[in-house]
Amino acid sequence: MSRVLASSCYRTAAGGQIRRRKFATGTFDDPIVNLRTDLQPKPEPGTIVFGRTMSDHMFRCDWTAEEGWGTAHIVPHEPLAVSPACLGLHLGISCFEGMKAYRDPEGCTRLFRPDMNMKRFQASLQRIALPTIDEAALVDGIRALVRTDASWVPEGDGFSLYLRPMCFASEAYLGVGVPQTATLLVACAQAAPYFKGGMSGGIRLYAEPAAVRAWPGGVGSHKLAGNYAPTITSMRDARAPPNSYDDVLWLFGDDRQITEVGSSNFVAVLANNDGSAELVTAPLSRGDILPGVTRDSLLHLARRMGADGLSVSERTLTMSELASAADGGRLLEAFGCGTAAVISPVKSVSFDGCEYFCRESPGPWAQRLYNELTDIQYGRADGPAGWSVRC
Ligand SMILES: *Cc1c(COP(=O)(O)O)cnc(C)c1O
Q1: 348 lines ligand 1 (CB under 6 A)
Q2: Is the four-CA dihedral 107, 113, 119, 121 of positive or negative sign?
Q3: 342 lines ligand 1 (CB under 6 A)
Q4: pTM for this one?
Q5: Using a 6 Å cutoff on CB, does residue 183 contact ligand 1?
Q6: CB distance 265 to ligand 1 below 6 Å
Q7: Dihedral of CA 45/46/51/56: which sign?
Q8: Which residues pair with 172 in a beta bridge?
Q9: What is the pLDDT along the chain (391 residues), one digit of tens a residue?
Q10: Of all protein residues, whose CA lies closest to atom 12 belonging to ligand 1?
């Protein structure tokens, strides 16, 4: 299972071998590597459960208001020592990212659009008064981490190493205050296909009538830890028997605008009268939608399918429009999209006592988008410049 990366994976843009410095500088892009000696056993590929098995190492850098960022390290993945008064724990001054490292056909590891994750991380950090970062340098630090734990990047379609950059206010203070110290970490866990065979036969959604995930003027467009805690009870209740839905469809406003599904973006494909199809997803302009890298990438790929009869709209879609499209046979496809599951086809949406049905299996547009996107992520096809980055 563990496999040594081909040495050709370590070529610089100029084609030469990357020179290993004798002493690392300890900056974001050149962390000091402290390898563990008690390497952890890896699960058999068939037994990998998403997000449960951590890799051997993590990236760590600490910050203080006085000194700025300290020395960056790659260290063994192990429990932290934090004060019980840690601001990040009780005030939720904490944000995170989600991205993946993929293994390409040459056996090398790759990241997908890491610049977009870092841009979003920067926006999250700023929103909660955490320190700013050098985005490009942190991408290089993450690449160094993936090279260190390359043997943890599983092979095969749908398999990857999930990367979780995060930052939290670390100081001990039981008041409310602007963070004076912070800890930035990047942890890694193995990821298996969310659904066997790439995509499932479809998830059943419960349109949440009461609780709201995010609202204009709120922080739903940032990946803040505090956005997720209040969603867990809705998820738990939706999944409870006897209905056993798979996830929550989040609505906003008196007109029941559809916003997101679980913690992924929502996309519907509607039939137009002229036989063409319209791919619809909520606009980012209202401020209540998380700007997904998957969302952005799928919109880009979908816009190239115009000649095949697909148009793309970033516009408000209400629950009543979705319901009447489903009733009228014009709801061709619906799916959630995000890094973890890529595309999750939606089989049905339950709202106000009625269940609106879509389709049992992934639709042709979802399948085509899934294939194109994952081919780029796994380095099987070239994408737009800068999308797939070798570690
Ligand atoms: C992370 C996340 C997404 C998906 O973003 P990707 O960059 O595509 O992984 C969508 N919605 C919410 C609420 C999220 O937290």
Answers
A1: no
A2: negative
A3: no
A4: 0.94
A5: no
A6: yes
A7: negative
A8: 86
A9: 445 555 567 654 444 445 556 688 999 999 999 999 999 999 987 889 899 999 999 999 999 999 999 999 999 999 999 999 999 999 999 999 999 999 999 999 999 999 999 999 999 999 999 999 999 999 999 999 999 999 999 999 999 999 999 999 999 999 999 999 999 999 999 999 877 656 777 999 999 999 999 999 999 999 999 999 999 999 999 999 999 999 999 999 999 999 999 999 999 999 988 889 999 999 999 999 999 999 999 999 999 999 899 999 999 999 999 999 999 999 999 999 999 999 999 999 999 999 999 988 899 999 999 999 999 999 999 999 999 999 9
A10: 263
Ligand 1 atom at minimum distance from 213 CA: 13
CA of 99 to the centre of ligand 1 (A): 10
User: Nearest C-alpha to atom 10 of ligand 1 is from which residue?
Assistant: 264
Tokens of 325: 């499209």
> Is 264 touching ligand 1 by the criterion CB < 6 Å?
yes
200 lines ligand 1 (CB under 6 A): no
Q: How far is CA 137 from CA 18, 26, 29, 132, 172, in A?
A: 16, 11, 4, 12, 29
Q: Is the dihedral of CA 65, 69, 75, 76 positive or negative?
A: positive
Q: How far apart are CA 6 and CA 378, in angstroms?
A: 16
